[in-house]
Amino acid sequence: MQILMRLAKLDMTEDSLEDVSNFPVIVEALKCLCNIVFNSAIAQKLSLELNLAAMLCNLLKKCKDQQFVDDIKCFDLRLLFLLSLLHTEIRSQLHHELQGLQVLTQALESSFSIRWTDKYKAAEEHDGSPLSLQETDCAIEALKALFNVTLDSWNVHSENESHQFRYMAAILRHCLLTVGPTEDKTEELHSNAINLLSNIPVSCLDVLINPSTQEETVLKYNGMNMDAIQVLLDFMEKRIDKGSSYREGLTPVLSLLTECCRAHRNIRKFIKAQVLPPLRDVSNRPEVGTTVRNKLVRLMTHVDLGVKQIAAEFLFVLCKERVDNLLKYTGYGNAAGLLAARGLLAGGRGDHWYSDDEDTDTEEYKSAKPNINLITGHVEEPMPNPMDEMTEEQKEYEAMKLVNMFDKLSRDEVIKPMGVRPDGTMTPLEETICQYQTNEQDSSDSD
After folding, report:
1. Which helix (H) or strand (E) holds 174?
2. What are phi and psi of 27, to 5 degrees?
3. Alpha-carbon distances of 108 from 7, 69, 100, 144, 239, rounded to whole Å
4. Residue 17: pLDDT band by 50, 70, 90 thresholds?
5. What's the DSSP call for residue 155?
6. Please, which pLDDT band fits residue 15 given cuts at 50, 70 and 90?
7. What angle separates helix 133-149 from helix 159-176, to the nearest 10 degrees?
8. Would 288 disulfide with which of 3, 208, 284, 381, CB 3.0-4.6 Å?
9. How is residue 153 annotated by DSSP?
10. Residue 74 vs residues 4, 17, 182, 324, 435: alpha-carbon distances, Å
């Protein structure tokens, strides 16, 4: 490892890379170090003893603004990513001792050649020229390394940290509006940017919607530029349409959008207009169709518990955590899992506070509302009553048959009848009946 580190020019005494003529040797030495560190636990431990992370940060500073060393920069970043992934102490060292956050952020910024027009605001390039493959790879490696270094950054403790994270979020906004050389590379770039955005404290994500001063910007809401938020929504829908790997591919962007909506009113209102527009046609079930709402409602009953929960939580936050609003858009059957988990089966709203502005229903929805089936969330055709042509004896026989069937299932513990407490949580039916009888006795008058 020491031989390879010398060949990679990782010693601290080297002043500059300009005098080095054999750049391929440096690149190959860094590649070898990447392979060794990835495959050897001993090498990972030695990396801390040899202070490899500090040397890599120093080499990264030398690569700044030198386009002819992009290969060196790319594999330097990849090695930093592997070290921060496989050794938690190196992750802490990068964050607290080596100013790794600043070094990696600068490396990320240099990959995009950003031109700043204001604090936390980058100039938007309208020529649409994509990044080169080398620039895209460097940016992806920097994003992955930054993700590891910022894993425990939920709380901002100082003004300097707040500035650092806002600055990073502004770079990531530019990243979301940038395209790579191919569609797959663009998706990989945006995916890693979204992962990193999930680590940034949500209070610092307001820079994603800087005030819009450009007339050519189409996506405005309350004077805010919503281009980056639209990219997130498009990315989410594309991942839903893939139909696989939801936990790895979809939950990060859904989680990010949920937190943004919970903390920033303008983002929530813009996304709700896209995802949950005012209801007009309620003839179909909420999960039937090709709109974003239909796709998300289908995920509310997904077999993967994590996917199901985050999709339901996202829609719940868009409804300002009001049960009646959620049921209007999803139906009680689709929302039952979330409501049971949150103890809201009896109605009410969640714990977070939202603005008091009310949703306005369309005339079509108001006229159809009395006929909507609350369980399925749509208007159903009236079904003939099978008991209309039965005699009283037949009705009594069918009722007792049903009671016996439920009794057998209950005794065999195939099913367990449940009831709902006044606070909205579920409880065994026997407990609910006993509580009801107790309340009746307490409220009755006695001689």
Report:
1. helix 159-176
2. -65, -45
3. 25, 15, 12, 10, 25
4. low
5. S
6. low
7. 150
8. 284
9. -
10. 17, 15, 19, 51, 67
> Does residue 246 sit in helix, strand or coil?
helix
* Residue keyed to tokens 């439920």: 406
**Distance, CA of 401 to CA of 64 (rounded, Å):** 80
Which tokens belong to 214?
A: 């450009």
**pLDDT (0 to 100) of residue 279:** 87
pLDDT digits (tens, 9 = 90+) for 319-374: 988 888 899 999 888 988 888 888 887 777 777 667 666 567 788 888 887 788 88
194-233 b/e (C-beta count within 10 Å ≥ 16 → b): bbbbbbbbbebbbbbbbebeeeeeeebbeebbbbbbbbbb
| Residue 447: predicted pLDDT | 47
**Residue entry with tokens 């209102």:** 269
Report the chain's mean pLDDT, rounded to a whole number. Answer: 85
Dig out the tokens for 25 from the structure. Answer: 């040797």
What lies within 8 Å, CB to CB, of 297 at 6+ separation is: 286, 287, 315, 329, 330, 331, 334
N-terminal to C-terminal alpha carbon distance within the chain: 93
CB atoms within 10 A of CB 88: 11
Nearest to 227 by CA among 191, 175, 189: 175
386 contacts: CB under 8 Å, gap ≥ 6: none
Predicted pLDDT at 423: 72
Task: Report the pLDDT value the prediction gives residue 374, as an integer from 0 to 100.
Answer: 81
Rounded CA separation 75/66 (Å): 15
Residues whose CB is less than 8 angstroms from the CB of residue 7 and which lie 6 or more positions away in sequence, other chains included: 25, 26, 28, 29
Judge whether 143 and 171 are in contact, CB under 8 Å. no
- How far apart CA 70 and CA 58 sit, in angstroms, is 15
* Whether 145 contacts 104, CB under 8 Å: yes
pTM of the model as a whole: 0.84
Name the H helices within 243-330: 246-249, 251-263, 265-275, 292-299, 305-318, 323-330
Give the distance, in angstroms, between the CA of residue 196 and the centroid of all CA atoms in the same chain: 11
CA dihedral for 49, 53, 55, 58, sign (positive or negative) = negative
Angstrom distance (rounded) from CA 179 to CA 189: 8
The tokens for 185 are 């590379």
| Mean pLDDT (whole number) for 101-114 | 89
